[in-house]
Automatic annotation (TrEMBL):
Entry's family note: Belongs to the AB hydrolase superfamily. ABHD17 family.
Name of the featured protein: Alpha/beta hydrolase domain-containing protein 17C
Gene label: ABHD17C
Species whose genome carries this gene: Alligator sinensis
One GO term (biological process): regulation of postsynapse organization
Enzyme class, spelled out: hydrolase
Coiled-coil stretches: none
UniProt-recorded Gene Ontology molecular function terms: palmitoyl-(protein) hydrolase activity
Length: 342
């Protein structure tokens, strides 16, 4: 039996989304100036060199800080090895669990402004596969129409992405809802393909029921591995739009570029699902992507029935598209002028 996650270990799942340029991800925005984004500094014992995968144990510790950093809260019981939660099993019933794990005040490693703190809410939801899903809602644009349902890349968690969400949402006038996949950050369970799909289903339901956001106001945004659950959900539900940032055709095609068809053991076969997506789709990809080749983005674009003008970022790799001015420009154009009733 092929372990679908393991065979991508040397390629897709060693892609480092967070590098030493993270503080300038939204560089050259608006005026062309570098607009640095604040983020919590990593503890010195766990500081990593650029280009190396972040240790899994550190990701769990960083996610334990996420609640404190983002919303002034930390989950009780985060003293175990590797930061794994001891609060599992304390939630009862399905759906959203705002008090799951006995959320208690704790000092934050990084101090955000009070306005930023007030804009962020963290809570737990439960998936159909009985995992507790860490969720984050960032109210960047209270008067904005759209909310991004953001499925992040592999080597990050909510704690590391929070400042990026605040900066991105405020610049494109969208609120941002995100979540940690099963086995990532504060979410329980183990990473698997089935869990990925159950995770985004739970996030979709939480966004709709907890915040009352209707599908016509939800933009699904997937980055790298996050494009997998994004395409799956978009193939089953209609929404305002879909944004695929550095998408992959399938896992086997990443590991073995000469693969021309989908086999029964292939993981993440997004290329076979994209034709079922009925919402407008914006594909973004760097021409020099060293992790997921540019050909993946091109193939996804060509198979998509409602694809809009794509953004091919000349010279960009897998982790630095946000550094290019056209990234924000294209997002603003798409959301503000190309969507129905925008």
């Amino acid at each position: 039996m092929v372990n679908k996650f393991a065979y991508l270990g040397s390629t897709l799942f060693h892609a480092v989304h967070v590098d030493n340029k993270v503080n300038t991800r939204l560089a050259k925005a608006d005026s062309g100036r570098v607009l640095p984004l604040r983020r919590p500094p990593l503890p010195q014992p766990h500081r990593r060199q650029a280009g190396l995968p972040a240790p899994r144990a550190h990701l769990h510790r960083a996610a334990a800080r996420a609640a404190a950093t983002a919303g002034g809260w930390a989950r009780d019981g985060w003293a175990g090895a590797g930061g794994r939660s001891r609060a599992r099993g304390r939630c009862r019933g399905g759906g959203d669990t705002a008090g799951c794990g006995h959320l208690q005040p704790a000092p934050a490693d990084w101090q955000y402004s009070q306005r930023e703190l007030d804009a962020v809410e963290v809570f737990f939801s439960r998936t159909a596969r009985d995992n507790h899903l860490g969720c984050m809602f960032v109210r960047c644009a209270p008067a904005g129409r759209y909310t991004l349902l953001f499925s992040h890349g592999n080597a990050v968690d909510l704690g590391q992405m929070c400042s990026f969400y605040i900066g991105l949402g405020s610049r494109i006038n969208c609120n941002v809802f995100s979540y940690d996949y099963s086995g990532y950050g504060v979410s329980t369970g183990k990473p698997s393909e089935k869990n990925l799909y159950a995770d985004i289903d739970a996030a979709w339901q939480a966004l709709r029921t907890r915040y009352g956001v209707s599908p016509e106001n939800i933009i699904l945004y997937g980055q790298s591995i996050g494009t997998v659950p994004t395409v799956d959900l978009a193939s089953r539900y209609e929404c305002a739009a879909v944004i695929l940032h550095s998408p992959l055709m399938s896992g086997l095609r990443v590991a073995f570029p000469d693969t021309r068809k989908t086999y029964c053991f292939d993981a993440f076969p997004s290329i076979d699902k994209i034709s079922k997506v009925t919402s407008p789709v914006l594909v973004i990809h760097g021409t020099e992507d060293e992790v997921i080749d540019f050909s993946h983005g091109l193939a996804m674009y060509e198979r998509c029935p409602r694809a809009v003008e794509p953004l091919w970022v000349e010279g960009a790799g897998h982790n630095d598209i946000e550094l290019y001015a056209q990234y924000l420009e294209r997002l603003k154009q798409f959301i503000s002028h190309e969507l129905p009733n925008s």
